[in-house]
Amino acid sequence: MRKIVILTGAGMSAESGIATFRGSGGMWNNYPVEQVATPEGFAANPGLVLQFYNERRAELLGAEPNEGHRLVADLEKNNDVVVVTQNVDDLHERAGSTNVIHLHGELMKGCSSFAPNDPRMVRTLTAQHPVIALGDKADDGSQLRPFIVWFGEAVPRMDDAIAALRDIDIFVIIGTSLNVYPAAGLLNFVPADVPVYLIDPNDVQVRGVRQVTTIRKGASEGMRDLLKLIG
Ligand code: APR
Q: Cys staple from 113: which of 22, 33, 145, 183, with CB 3.0 to 4.6 Å?
């Protein structure tokens, strides 16, 4: 069976109404990254950070997967697909993708602030209980925090993402500006003979010299075009 790895970013969820980070209207134009997406910011003002992610979680609960997510999920019918996403939303899973690696964490989960990557402390949040409040504790007694990889923190699932590239036939990039490492560096681990497709309505600078087939469209329309190209 053909093996496909798909690296997605915020643009994958743009058509679901979720803001991207950079470019016009980007999240980082409205929120100071260092205050809401770093461990230092959380230490300095945990209430502000919890509120930021509670708001994003509420927004996510009102959002639906778009056609792009569904077409990615449908690829699993005839291919061995791994989605490596920088997104913390669960829209790939809600669209039906069954093999999703979240490099930057998951918005619908909370974790220990003593040991963020201790799986025993990770707690799944629900539509009924989507809020993390000051005073909510992880099982180790620490303040519960969003299960998000903040700037400056390790990206533990990068190893799994690199391992997923073994023996792949096609690599697809959808909706990421390739600004943030190590996620953007995943492309460097794709074997030289593997075709790479990039779906994005804007121009994305791809470092390195390899041949990339660009589909200058949004995620949904771009996935339809990709399916025509790869069958
Ligand atoms: N379909 C596909 N791509 C789109 C669409 C769309 N409808 N709309 C915008 N895009 C593209 C933009 O052109 C841009 O290239 O999505 C990309 C979004 O880039 P960023 O906002 O930089 O998001 P991303 O690359 O996912 O950021 C990576 O940065 O802040 C951190 O942790 C955060 O995971 C995030 C990481």
A: 145
